[in-house]
Design a protein that fits this description.
Chain lengths: 231, 270
């Protein structure tokens, strides 16, 4: 599940994007549920912008039964931190998304002290992840580098901003068309950047979407500003 | 996926949310329809959109009245007002579309949801990629383009000729009829999926060969390929992979860092 490896954006664009996730494998799946729950509970104390479980989703989810009032007063169907924790009833991938490096580092230090015994990964700028781990007293074990959307018919890819928004769901659940629609709505003043970011977040089924970064990118687009070039 | 014509009010909200662009409003029918050949059964429309369950006849009447006065209604963009999206029961080989496209469906071959791979995310416990080795994740179809297995097979055949070994705990490998030659079973070659990840392992020294092979075969496929390369770090957290990649002209700044907190820790033989 390479759901966070290839997030489009230059280092500057990715400066507020840190995903920490935990998972068990077959060798240590037994007894993993309380450890995964402990990981999420610890993360919740460090004010993540999203918290998720691959099987039940995260803070932002769609509603199965809305009333027409939604067009004037939107209700989110998302989960609270306690609900995300309670939703872990089998070994799964759980994650916490941060828009602030200091909070992410504090969480790493906390989770390292707990010695939960499940694999923990940081998906972010690799140099920042390595430095953050070092400050928490951890030497990285393995690393996987993203070479990006680099080969084949790359002329079929959408524009930079659309890629930056849509690839924050690595499962591909956020359509380029929806990202473009949100950019247009924000630029036309018909939606606030935060509303548009939450709309996109509701399509991410595992909770790795970073609504804070999306809001920033949409806000910059609304002001006609663009981040430095990226792939 | 199907859009129930008795419930659809042609609001068009589902058009933008389809990652494959497979939904359009048929103006003659006055209903949204799904292009079945392009639909990858990812369920993004069905699971991602909120639903209102309004009576279709009422919604159509309101929309007709608004249109007559050229009123611009500004509805929530991720809502299906009449719950018209309807999953259909899938049979083989179409079933494979959902397995590779819907992230909440675990792959039978690995038990992992999403693309069904663990890569180096659990390398501290599995030892999947050891010292001196490189693990590749070659992903097809994302973002928003999709891929047919016929195109994946073009690449896996080329990779197999370089003498690499495909990861056995991987959903694509499980669908290979001949992993040694990179052949994928014939009956699924025309099926379109949202994305798939081919995983392979090689010695670090052969990383340039694999990347050159991918570069050479990539123009032959009608999709985009994303590449990830992983390595085991030494006791200082270093890996020669970074210099190898830079020497080949690759730029990279983002990735996944396994912190080595999993237990029992895999013990490598010196």
């Amino acid at each position: 599940m390479t759901n966070t490896l290839h997030r489009a954006g230059s280092p500057a664009s990715l400066r507020d994007d840190f995903i920490v996730f935990a998972m068990a494998t077959r060798a240590n799946a037994e007894g993993a549920v309380p450890k995964l729950q402990a990981f999420l509970r610890t993360a919740a104390r460090h004010a993540p912008v999203n918290l998720g479980n691959a099987k039940v989703g995260g803070f932002f989810r769609p509603c199965e039964r809305l009333t027409p009032l939604v067009h004037w007063r939107r209700q989110d169907g998302g989960l609270t931190p306690d609900e995300v924790v309670a939703g872990v009833d089998a070994p799964s991938v759980v994650c916490a998304v941060f828009d602030d490096r200091a909070r992410m580092e504090a969480f790493l230090a906390d989770v390292s002290r707990q010695a939960l015994g499940i694999s923990v990964n940081v998906s972010a700028l690799t140099d920042e992840a390595r430095q953050a781990a070092a400050r928490a007293g951890i030497v990285r074990h393995s690393v996987e580098f993203s070479l990006g959307f680099c080969l084949g018919q790359t002329d079929r890819l959408p524009d930079r901003l659309t890629l930056e928004l849509s690839t924050m769901c690595g499962h591909g659940m956020i359509a380029a068309g929806l990202a473009q629609k949100m950019v247009e709505l924000v630029k036309e003043g018909r939606r606030a950047p935060g509303e548009a970011a939450r709309c996109l977040a509701r399509f991410c089924s595992c909770g790795v979407f970073n609504p804070a970064r999306a809001e920033r990118l949409l806000g910059e687009a609304a002001q006609g500003r663009a981040a430095p070039c990226s792939r | 996926m199907r859009i129930d014509p008795s419930r659809c009010v042609a609001c068009g909200n589902c058009v933008a949310v389809c990652p494959m662009g497979a939904i359009a409003v048929d103006q003659a029918l006055g209903r949204a329809v799904v292009n079945e050949d392009e639909c990858v059964e990812c369920y993004a429309c069905y699971r991602g959109m909120s639903q209102e369950h309004l009576p279709p006849a009422l919604v159509r009447a309101v929309r007709r009245a608004a249109r007559a006065f050229r009123f611009r209604f500004d509805p929530e963009p991720d809502v299906c007002p009449t719950a018209a999206l309807t999953p259909v029961e899938l049979a083989w080989p179409r079933l494979v579309r959902r397995a590779f496209s819907d992230p909440v469906v675990p792959h039978e071959s690995t038990g992992v949801a999403g693309r069904g791979t663990e890569e180096v995310k659990t390398n501290d416990v599995t030892g999947r990629v050891g010292p001196g080795e490189a693990g590749f994740t070659v992903e097809f179809g994302r973002p928003g383009i999709g891929v047919r297995f016929r195109d994946i097979a073009r690449v896996t055949r080329a990779l197999a000729r370089t003498g690499i070994s495909f990861e056995t705990m991987n959903p694509v490998t499980s669908l290979m009829s001949d992993p040694a030659r990179g052949e994928i079973r014939e009956d699924i070659l025309d099926e379109k999926i949202l994305s798939a990840i081919v995983e392979l392992k090689t010695d670090l020294g052969r990383v340039p060969d694999v990347l050159r092979t991918l570069r050479a075969v990539a123009p032959e496929v009608d999709t985009v390929i994303s590449v990830g390369v992983a390595a085991r770090c030494d006791e200082r957290g270093d890996t020669p992979l970074e210099d190898l990649l830079r020497a080949e002209g690759w730029e990279f700044w983002r990735g996944k860092t396994n912190l080595g907190l999993g237990r029992p820790l895999f013990r490598e033989v010196a």
